[in-house]
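Notebook, p. 212. Picked up where the previous page left off. The plan for this session was modest: take the two constructs that came back from the sequencing core last week, fold each one, and keep the raw output in the notebook itself so nobody has to go hunting through shared drives later. Recording the first one now, exactly as returned: residue sequence, then the C-alpha cell string.
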Amino acid sequence: MKPSVKPSVKCSVPSADDITVVAADERSADDSPGCNVDVERWERLAHATLLTEGASGELTLTFIDLDDIAELNAEHMGKTGPTDVLSFPLDDEPMVTPDGEVIPALLGDVVLSPAVAGAQFAEHAGTYEDEIALLVVHGVLHILGHDHGEPVEAAAMRSRELALLIEHHWGGPAPAGFRQLHHDQLDHDDPGDVAE
C-alpha cells in the first residue's frame, strides 16, 4: 500500500505530548492462543517511532484475528488470504477549535495479525518478539509515507526500520539471524539482508 507523504503532520520539534497511540488487542480467544501480545509494549514502540520520525497526531494500532486481516487484505489490497500487517494512512490535518484548542491529526490505523507473526517469525525476524516489533515499525513507517515498491524505496525503508529497532526495541545491534525480508525475498549476495 503506497500512502501519500504528509509533511503537514511533521513538527519542527515534536513532543511526546503531540503523539497519541491507541492500541488494542481485539482478537478472539481462539485466534492465536500461543501468541501473547503485550499491548502497552507495542504501543510504546509505535509512539517512539512516531516521535523519532518527527510526526505528531493520533495513530491506532490494533491486533486482530486471522480471518479479519484476510478480509481486510482482500477488500483493500485485492489479495487472497491473510497478511501480517496492513496500514491505512489518513489524510487528516490538525484542526483548531474556535477557542484555539488544537485537535491532533488522525495519522491512520495499523492492523497486525499475531497469528501470521507467530507462523512466520522463524523464517523472518527470528523471534516472535522481534517479528511483532518489526511489523509495528513497518506499519507505522507506511503511515508516515514510506513504501517498498521500488528497490531504492525498499532500501530506505529497511534502513529506517533497522535504525528504529536498534534504538527503541533492542537498545543495541540487531541479534544474529535477524531478517527484515522474508526468506523468499532475500538476496543472498546482500549482507545487509541478514544480521551477522
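Okay, moving on. Second construct, recorded in the same format:
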Amino acid sequence: MDSTTLWAPRIYTLSGFVREDILQGAAALDFGCGGRKLPGAVGMDRLTLPSVDIVHDVNQRPWPVADDSFDLTFGNHVLEHVDDVLATLGELHRITKPGGRVVIQVPYFRCVDAFNDPTHVHFFATQTLDYCIDGTKLAQYRYTDFLFRKVGFWYGWPHPSKHPLKRALKSFIESHPTFYDQYLSLLLPTECLTWELEVIR
C-alpha cells in the first residue's frame, strides 16, 4: 500500500488528525462530523454546529446528496452509532463517485472504548465489512447489491509504529487476523480499525 495514493494515512497523520486541507480540489464529505471536520470537506451531522454544512441525521435515508457527488467520503467513529451499517454503507456507495474512496475508522470490538459509549450499537472485528467487499469469502452471502474494493486496512492508525516490538506485533496480526480476533486480542486489543475502500460499479 502506497501512502501517497491513499487518503487514510494523510488524514490520520503521525502527529494526529490532519489540521490542514489536503484535498487538493477533491470533493469530500465528512458524515457525522460533529465539531471536528476534515478540513476542506462538506460536513454532515444532525447537530447544528459551525462545522456542519448539511444538517441531517445519517439514519434518515436517502441522504440529501446527489449520486456520485464526492471523490472521498469519510466517517470518523460514526458507523458504531448508526442504526443500519449496511444501509449506511449503501448511501456512501451511492454518493461516492466510481473509483472514489471511502475512509472509515471505528473502535475495535475488544477495546473498552467500544463499550464505554452507551450510544454505540454496533461492534467491529477485522472482517465485519467483508460482507460488502469484493473478492472476500463473506461477500458471497450477498447481503448487499453493491460492493467496494479494499485498498487499505489497518489495525489502529494507518502508520507503522516507531516501536520495533509494536511493529512486529502489527505485522504478525496482519498475517493472522482470525487468530488475533479470536485469541490474541484478548490480551493485546488494538484501539480501532481503519479501512480505505474504493467504490466499484
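Notes on construct two before I forget. The chain has one domain: 8-162+191-200.
Flagging for discussion at group meeting.
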